[in-house]
Amino acid sequence: MHKKILFLLLAASAGIAISAQSALDDDLMQNIEDSTKSLTSNIALKDIKGGSVDAKELAEMFAKVEVFYQQKGDASEAVDLSRKSRELSVEVGKDITSRNFDHANELATSLSKTCKTCHSIYKKDA
Amino acid sequence: MSFNSRRDFILKSGLGLGSAALSGFIPGMGFVSAATAAELADPLAPKAPQFPAKIKSVIWLHQNGAPSTLDLYDYKPELAKLAGKDTPTSFLKGIKTSTQGGVGKLFVSNKRTWKQYGDSGAWFSDLLPNLAQQADKIAFIKSSVTVGATHDISILKLNTGDVNPGRPSLGAWITYALGSANRDLPAYVVLYNGDQEPRAGSVNWSSGFLPAVYQGTPFRPGDSPILYLDRPELRSAQQQRASLDLLKKLNNLGAASYPHDTELLARLQSYELADRMQSAAPEAVDLSKESDATKELYGLNDATSASYGTTLLRARRLVERGVRFIQVVSGWPDGISDAERRSWDAHSNLDDNHGLMAKMVDKPIAGLLADLKSRGLLDSTLVVWASEFGRTPWGESGNGRDHNPWGYTQWIAGGGVKAGYTHGATDDIGVQVADKDLAVDTYDLHATVLQLMGLDHLKTTFLNNGRSERPTVVYGKVIKELLA
Lengths: 126, 484
Fold this sequence. Notes:
The structure holds 2 protein chains of 2 kinds.
Chain A: H1 2-13, H2 26-44, H3 48-72, H4 76-97, H5 101-122
Chain B: H1 6-14, H2 16-23, E1 25-26, E2 30-31, H3 34-41, E3 57-62, H4 77-82, E4 114-117, E5 122-125, H5 129-132, E6 138-144, H6 151-160, H7 170-178, E7 188-192, E8 217-219, H8 237-257, H9 262-285, H10 292-297, H11 306-320, E9 325-329, H12 350-374, E10 381-386, E11 390-396, E12 400-404, E13 408-414, E14 422-423, H13 442-452, E15 462-464, E16 467-469
Parallel strand pairs in B: 3-9, 3-10, 6-14, 7-8, 7-9
Antiparallel strand pairs in B: 1-2, 4-5, 6-13, 10-13, 11-12, 15-16
Helix pairs in contact in B: 8-9, 11-12
């Protein structure tokens, strides 16, 4: 329940208009990739402020991806993967805040792998 | 930092660089401790691994051109049953093919035979009779995956972890993290056979954003491995030493003014290394003192395998002399002029191509494993069979195979490896990895190699323009099942 409320809040705070987009925004994907690299770096540097910002932004962006695929329909794997990515981002943020950088690093790596998995299924030129 | 005036700004950011350098601040590297400063002065000084290493050296056997592991290690009886038929669409789900002429009918050579070998029961085809005898030394990775369907891009990813140039190669990372174990030789050497350097280029042994001193050094085939290394006859050793001493003095003056110039530091190191290498490098690659039995073990008495066998025997000698990473790129046998037989890239005439290439590498690699074992070196050396991708089960041009990044075989052998183990598998006809949870990407292979060298891929980092970078980019997982 708590997670569902959090998702709805993220979706609302990201200012998402539930609309019928035909394709995912390339800029959004690029921003996710950039933020993932930044997150990895900030975890290695033990930068709590930078890492927390990256984790929060990633959670918001993955919320957008999740909504997109929910609206698109017939993309249950993408919904699951984007939800997993969003949840991982939140967990990474918690680890960073509590200075558990080793675990944050592992989760961030899992997050990157989840992105790859989704790309292998849904990215047009993968 | 606040800037109250233009003068203040210039002092604090521009002219202040000199004092910043003296204070230990290096642009791109942050503030350096005294220990790091010593490292900058001698970047190749040996460094301890992060935890006890299982191995001291890696021999990375890049099979250039991408062999069909469906014709070497990955026996598919179902493929044989379906040969000549259309590829069932169920096997193509989730992948995008780009074979010229479209996905052809499934192809199996009528020359191919298969047997199981050793206690592990590993499958080998008739193309690798000698390597098959070493079956129980090998751990197979039959769920290898990568991205990209062109050689240059995928070779770059195999070696550096990225499809774009600019990242350090795995050998450069290892050299950066561990330094050199032999000051008379490069810590990272690239070997190849054939009459040209590997076509994919030096970007595959580059130091990327790491200091230039960590790049690989290619050793050419032949008696003189490095161009212009030999001292000219007209110049005495004493004269050369005096010249080098003066050059060092002058370069050190320059280095003091530009402490962040890693290319200058690399050049300083390289002149001294070159001086030492004049005797050390030719000796390392001189096979004249190797026994006839050893030469035969590596296939030096056969024209097809002689050049590759020479390369691998040199690799063994470099391991004995403490070289940490030896990147061997397969070329072609002497005397081969047609492009279709200068790599494993058999888009057509696979039997002809692989018959030649397998004969080139089979005895030498088997000999290398046996020789390392008999000399007590296999326990501290990792041998890796790697390729940029595999090949498709459907034919191309009738009797060849196209590129396949979705599922193929690589293997490792040596210290810390669970010999006889097979990780993962491809589907029944060898298109894709059967269980994607067992897929091993290039980053995972790199992470596993680093683990064996005593390095955690997550903690082997370098600060590049304010961003912490690691060998596995943002990916990578140690494949623990491969480890003993």
